[in-house]
Design a protein that fits this description.
The chain is an alpha/beta fold. The chain contains twelve helices and ten strands. The protein has helices at about 1-20, 25-30, 40-45, 60-70, 75-80, 85-90, 95-110, 170-185, 205, 210-225, 240-250, 335-340; strands spanning about 45-50, 50, 125-130, 135-140, 145-150, 185-195, 235-240, 255-260, 280, 315.
Length: about 350
């Protein structure tokens, strides 16, 4: 009887999720941007020094790194100038080459929404103008960093809003800047909006479709960091971004996964993630995410609360965090803990 009662309660909570999202889901529904970058066909039709170019769809980041390692400076620049959108998003390609390629790719769009990404000093590690746009930006010296963090954001983030006006410690770029300031100069932090995020609190945010597509891209992205010699990253996963991280966990070499403001990770317990990474979780006392049912039923909901005592994560105090976006607010114990984790000082 008890098992039946739990099943009925889960079904009822799932019905609440459906009722809460069905009214506006159709207007906000998103199509995930997947597959190789724009310009891939022209790239594959080209050669360099008579050699075929690696296929962005199936070449591993390690194979890409070895390919570029065998090219001289002239050949690399030739590819950059001819195929900036491909070179800029090709995991495993040299960092400086990607930064330059993405600056050229942003300018080539002529789109005012992205213009600030091409400003001097910006280190854009990936850029894709399709759909609402995707972007990854590096804060710090990734090539020399002793510690690396990757911020994986949740809903309502894309390339067009990357530089949008908001509180300085919120949004993927704001969180990355604040974490880098707190962690110090030997840390590089990447703001990774490398997947199609949900818009608003519609049905997309209650199911895992966009997160599944994002997990594939996140796993490849972290493999690209490994291919260029970067340290194993710490993933900082906010809100729906924690669903992405949960699905990607077993396919990344992250040393730690930190989730905060999480609706769930598509798992009932930490062991189900099948990862060797240390898992950390935080939830502030006034975060509205606490009102989201922690269920997974018929594809709706994202499972147990990672910050709950039974989940099996290391819990981070968030008593001084305000709201859903205050986890990186300067001066909070949560930000101090986040910085200590990426530096390996908290285990």
């Amino acid at each position: 009887m008890r098992r039946f009662g739990r099943t009925m309660a889960t079904a009822a909570l799932a019905a609440v999720v459906v009722a809460a999202t069905a009214g506006w889901a159709s207007g906000d529904s998103q199509q995930a941007v997947t597959g190789p970058p724009p310009g891939t066909a022209a790239w594959l039709a080209d050669t360099v020094s008579g050699r075929p170019l690696p296929d962005p769809a199936d070449a591993t980041p390690g194979e890409v790194a070895r390919f570029f390692g065998g090219l001289d400076t002239g050949a690399r620049r030739e590819l950059l100038q001819s195929h900036p959108l491909v070179v800029g998003s090709l995991d495993g390609a040299p960092l400086s080459l990607r930064y330059e390629a993405n600056r050229a790719a942003v300018l080539a769009t002529g789109d005012a929404r992205y213009a600030s990404l091409a400003a001097p000093g910006r280190q854009i590690l990936a850029f894709d103008p399709r759909g609402r746009g995707q972007v990854a930006e590096v804060f710090g010296d990734l090539g020399r960093a002793a510690h690396v963090a990757v911020v994986v954001p949740g809903s309502d983030n894309d390339a067009a809003t990357h530089d949008g006006r908001r509180e300085p410690h919120t949004g993927p770029a704001g969180m990355a800047r604040t974490l880098r300031d707190a962690a110090g100069g030997d840390t590089a932090v990447i703001a990774w909006t490398g997947y199609t995020t949900p818009v608003g609190v519609g049905l997309d945010s209650a199911v895992g479709t966009l997160a599944e597509a994002g997990a594939v891209r996140l796993a490849r992205f972290t493999a690209g960091l490994d291919a260029v010699g970067a340290p194993d990253p710490v993933l900082y996963c906010h809100s729906y971004g924690s669903v992405v991280c949960g699905l990607a966990a077993r396919r990344t070499d992250a040393s730690d996964i930190v989730v905060f403001g999480s609706p769930g990770m598509r798992a009932g317990a930490a062991a189900e993630l099948r990862t060797g990474a240390r898992l950390w979780a935080a939830r502030g006392p006034s975060d509205w995410i606490a009102d989201v049912p922690n269920v997974e039923f018929a594809g709706l909901g994202h499972g147990a609360d990672p910050s709950g005592a039974a989940f099996g994560s290391r819990r981070i105090s968030a008593t001084d965090v305000r709201g859903h976006t205050g986890y990186f607010a300067p001066g909070t114990r949560t930000l101090a803990a986040f910085a200590a984790i990426v530096k390996g000082e908290l285990r």
